């Protein structure tokens, strides 16, 4: 597994890097057989250290966790415990579904646009009535089942996930509702 360990305006020593590789490696190897890479970032906010970790799995899923503490090793340990809990739940769900994905998740390229908000820019409207595009980027849309999409959304702590439904190939969205439940938007079933 490849590791990228860095600090935002913090010097990360060799001892901390080896500790992160050892501990995070054990957690990931316990639950997942083929992790591809991990990114761990340390930062400091006033008196508190923050550790953010993201692990990319060979199935295409991504797990992320964040920990806070007054000491840098304790912040990492908090983050590692959250990652352990997420990966344990993910593995349990996979077993419950009795489904092992043999092939990696397929991704399709899609355009991602950032539009100017009305608050920041009062002249955000152009002559034809369309909002002003601030940035154009490329993102990837995975092909997943609905259950896998919900798992991916929860693992990455995202408020929503756009995915291509592997049953019929249509674009779907899963999102966290205000009442705490998960919503699923499938335009194909709107008839």
From TrEMBL:
GO terms for biological process: negative regulation of translational elongation. GO terms for cellular component: cytosolic small ribosomal subunit. One of its GO terms (molecular function) is ribosomal small subunit binding. SUPFAM superfamilies: Ribosome binding protein Y (YfiA homologue). The keyword Transcription does not apply. Keywords: Cytoplasm, Translation regulation. Residues 130-183 form the Sigma 54 modulation/S30EA ribosomal protein C-terminal domain. It is found in: Cytoplasm. Belongs to the HPF/YfiA ribosome-associated protein family. Long HPF subfamily. HAMAP family: HPF. Interacts with 100S ribosomes. Required for dimerization of active 70S ribosomes into 100S ribosomes in stationary phase; 100S ribosomes are translationally inactive and sometimes present during exponential growth. This is Ribosome hibernation promoting factor. It comes from Thioclava pacifica DSM 10166. The gene is hpf.
